[in-house]
Every structure is written in C-alpha cells, then in structure tokens.
Design brief:
The protein has 224 residues and is mainly alpha-helical. The protein folds into 2 domains: 96 residues, Endonuclease Iii, domain 2 (Orthogonal Bundle); 110 residues, Endonuclease III, domain 1 (Orthogonal Bundle). The protein is built from 12 helices and no strands. Helix 5 crosses helix 6. It is globular, with a radius of gyration of 18 Å. The structure holds a DNA duplex (13 and 12 nucleotides).
Length: 224
DNA sequence: GACCAGGCACATC
DNA sequence: GATGTGCATGGT
C-alpha cells in the first residue's frame, strides 16, 4: 500500500539530499519562536528577526514577556506581518510562562495529545505551528504537514488534494503502526524520521516544485 | 512589478 | 464547510 511508497520516497529523498539537520536553532525556545515567526514567511527573513532578538540579548521568555508589543514588532520586522506576529508571540509567551513557568523540561513531560490541544488554544498557533513546536522543539512523535506536502503527495496519488490537515497527517503517521512496539528506541527512530521527512519535503519543494517554475523533469522523484 | 515564502484568524456566503 | 482576505517584509 501507500506505506511502502512513502518509505520509498523518504529513502530516495534521504539518499539524494542527506540529513537536513532541522530545526535550525540553538535551543528549544529559539525553535518555538522561529515556528511562529516563519508563518507564511521565507526562513531567511525569520533568521534576521531572530538575530535582532539575539543581538539585543532578548531571546528569553521572561525578557520577551516584559517587552511592549510595539517594541517586539519593531525587532521582528524582517519576518513580515510583524504586528500580527508580535501579538502571537506575546500570547504564546503568556501560555508558556503561565502553564509551564517557562520551563521546557516541564513541557516535554506532558502527553503529546494534551500538549497539542493546549498549543492549539493559543491564539496564532494553528496545526502546522503546533506540530512544528511539538516535533522540533520538544521531540514529540508527530508529523508536520505543510502546503508542499499536500502539493507533492497528491500529485503522486498518495493523498487526495482535498484531504484535510489531519487526514494527511494520519497517512504519514500510519507509517509507524506496522512497527507495533513502542519502546523508547523505536519512538526516537520515528521522531527522527518525521523530523527528516518534513525537512526533506521542504528541501525538495524549494529546489524542484516551485509554482512558477516547476522542474519535474529533473526531480529526484520523477517516475516514482 | 508581480509573485512567493516552512500560516492563521476572521468574515462572509 | 468552503472560499476569500488581511497581515507585510525581502528575495527572485
């Protein structure tokens, strides 16, 4: 079925591009901030915004919490939609400090589904941002779906174009149901696979699937 | 100058 | 529930 095809595509991407070392960032907190800043935004612009926070030594939950929204917006300007994102960051910080006292370790101990629901309740955090935080900042076993994933895998007939976020996610997460056991070791393996898979999809899309100039003829997945 | 980028919330039908 | 729109910078 599609599980073999999904694993086939994964290994093709991995042998083509190698490990992607996602998520770029030196700490879980930086990853969470980046996940919000990158919404509908090129990563290079997010990096500039994060650099602004770093150079002011403000990449810290409590310090950011003390900033005014307008000052925060000023600092994250390069990431675009800065007024919206400044508010979203503030709402997230409020949640992070109130619920977890700004403690990543405490957050990591919470059950995946509970944490996911909590994140989705925060204004400005939708499914993709929540799952990026869960997978890349907290090491939870969840697959991140984005617009590229839908575009590429519906073209390959593995999902339907109209599938919801959840449906696409389930298709990918069914990959691990065959493994049966859920020891720490196998969980780590799936976290690693979901981590690389999403990153590889983004890499592939950027190089071969751009809307205006698709390069299907030389795509590594050609013929698969 | 148009189009796009590692989305989301909200309004409207 | 499906579709459209605002948010907004910076690279191609």
């Amino acid at each position: 079925m599609s599980t073999e095809k999904l694993l086939g595509i994964y290994s093709k991407l991995y042998t083509t591009f190698g490990p992607q070392y996602w998520w770029p960032g030196n700490s879980s907190f930086e990853i969470m901030v980046g996940a919000i800043l990158t919404q509908n935004t090129n990563w290079a612009n997010v990096e500039k915004a994060i650099l602004n926070l770093k150079s002011e030594k403000l990449l810290d939950a409590r310090k950011l919490d003390k900033l005014s929204v307008s000052r925060l917006a000023e600092l994250i300007k390069p990431a675009g939609c800065f007024n919206v994102k400044a508010k979203r960051l503030k709402d997230f910080l409020n949640f992070f400090l109130k619920e977890y006292n700004g403690n990543i370790g405490k957050m990591r101990k919470i059950d995946l589904n509970i944490l996911r629901r909590q994140l989705l309740e925060v204004n400005g955090i939708g499914p993709e941002t929540a799952d990026s935080i869960l997978l890349y900042a907290l090491g939870k076993k969840i697959f991140v779906v984005d617009a590229y994933t839908k575009r590429i895998f519906s073209r390959h007939g593995i999902i339907n174009q109209k599938d919801s976020y959840q449906q696409v996610q389930e298709t990918f997460m069914r990959l691990d149901s065959s493994s049966g056991k859920s020891t720490c070791k196998t969980i780590d393996r799936w976290v690693k696979l979901f981590n690389e898979y999403h990153a590889l999809i983004v890499r592939l899309a950027k190089e071969f699937c751009l809307k205006s100039k698709p390069r299907c003829e030389i795509c590594p997945l050609k013929g698969m």
